[in-house]
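Sequence in, structure out. Go.
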Amino acid sequence: MRFVLVALVSLAVAGAATATAPPVGALPAGPVSTITTQRGELVSIALTSRAGLSWRIARPFDAHIVREVAEADVGTRVVVVFKAVGRGRTKLVYAQTRGESSRAKAARTFSIVVR
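Output:
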């Protein structure tokens, strides 16, 4: 019986881990920030929280250039930390949505340059 319970919990966790949110559609105009850094450095971005809304990556970015290493709620902000792992340019485009909706309420773009 214990084996069956462990197997069911494992399957439930595996199913939840593979679920993905629908892609974010059109983005409203939003600020664009450029960040220049060196390979090996950490880069953090702070996004203003709003009740009932969540920030999420809205467009693909090059994980050969930056990789997310941490995320935390800090006061009224969501702070996301990336490590610069390779030279080049990429954009981090965030959209603020209600749940997993594809409709963005706000957008922020961070142009990352790693030298």
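Check: The mean pLDDT is 88. The chain is about 15% helix and 50% strand.
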